[in-house]
Amino acid sequence: MITVKSEKEIELMRKAGQLSFGALMAAGREVKPGVSTKYLDDIVRQYIESRGGTPNCLGYGGFPGSACISVNEEIIHGIPSENRILKEGDIVTIDTGATLDGFNGDNAETFAVGEVSKNARDLMKVTKAALFEAMEFAVAGNRVGDIGACVQRYCELRGYGVIREYCGHGIGKELHEEPSVPNYGREGHGVRLVPGMTICIEPMINEGTRHIKQLSDGWTVVTADGKLAAHFERTVLITGGKCEILTRDAVTGSAE
Ligand code: MF3
Ligand code: CO
User: Fold this and answer.
1) Given pLDDT bands bounded at 50, 70 and 90, which one contains residue 139?
2) Where are the beta strands (DSSP E) in the chain?
3) From CA 65, how far away is CA 99, in angstroms rounded?
4) Closest listed residue to residue 1, CA positions, set 143, 142, 176
5) Among 30, 84, 155, 164, which is disulfide-ready with 37 (CB 3.0 to 4.6 Å)?
6) 31-79 pLDDT, tens per residue?
7) Please, what's the largest Cα pairwise distance for the chain?
8) Nearest CA to ligand 1 atom 12
9) Cβ of 63 below 6 Å from ligand 1
């Protein structure tokens, strides 16, 4: 079911979004060589719980972390571990959200660990730009296919692989609601966007092939060719005009 949020619900989504963004940035600030992915996960959990929320990854389908933390060729759903130590030149995706007062936020960002290769920098830049380009299409009257077509075009034109198996999604009382928001598609096709819908747009982009592999831990999704992947996500509200980014800084309003 696609849910359309009331003004009161939207205000709660803003609060959950701001908490999610705060947690993501708090962990992001600690990304540096020598830290474990478990350390970053602990920061996320502490940030969210100390502010009255619950990390919505924790226990989701049995997921053991408060954030999904994915390094280099890992695309999504990396399990935080004290044995996984970040080193100079790695890239690391932190994907996390909070439930607060019954509503959810969800956001992700790929961070550089110290100095990274030009390949890595380009991949991160294009993936983030694809997300912000796609937001321009997230307006009432458009369809989810317009969002997907934008991400696909933006990334494939630049030679990158766009994964098909995982998508963005609606969000609200549930972390994952309808509609599905693929990173590929055809303009003018799919579910029509209406004001009050809240969705997560989350390009998952590979340096090489779009094909994926699932690790035997049952969670981690990696690139089939072992090349790098990047992933950026924001929760947005569909309005009559430009979409409103809900996962943003509570004070400055910035979502970058
Ligand atoms: N936050 C992820 C998303 O973008 C969902 C992670 S579910 C988990 O949809 F179980 F892996 F945590
Ligand atoms: Co999501």
Assistant:
1) very high
2) 54-55, 68-71, 74-76, 91-96, 98-100, 103-104, 107-112, 161-162, 168-170, 177-181, 198-201, 204-206, 212-214, 221-223, 229-231, 234-237, 244-245
3) 15
4) 176
5) 84
6) 999 999 999 999 999 999 999 999 999 999 999 999 999 999 999 999 9
7) 48
8) 57
9) yes
Per-chain residues with Cβ under 5 A from ion ligand 2: 106, 200
Burial class, 240, CB count within 10 angstroms (exposed 0-12 / middle 13-18 / buried 19+): exposed
Check if CATH label 3.30.1330.10 holds for domain 7-245. Answer: no
Taking residue 1's Cβ as centre, other Cβ atoms within 10 Å add up to 7
The tally of CA atoms less than 13 A away on the side-chain side of residue 121 is: 6
Span from the CA of 169 to the centroid of ligand 2 (angstroms)? 6
Q: Mean pLDDT for the chain?
A: 98
Model-level pTM? 0.98
Distance of CA 94 to the CA centre of its chain: 8
Of 154, 182, 160, give the one whose Cα is nearest residue 228: 160
| Burial of 118 (C-beta count, 10 Å sphere; 0-12/13-18/19+) | exposed
Spatial distance between the Cα atoms of 175 and 136, rounded to a whole number of angstroms: 23
Atom of ligand 1 nearest to the CA of 169: 9
Condensed to tens digits (0 to 9), the pLDDT of residues 199-214 reads 999 999 999 999 999 9
Pick the atom of ligand 1 nearest to 106's CA: 1
Say which residues have a Cβ less than 8 Å from residue 160's Cβ, sequence separation at least 6: 123, 126, 127, 205, 206, 207
Rounded CA gap, 246 and 12, in Å? 10
CA–CA separation, 197 and 203 (whole Å): 19
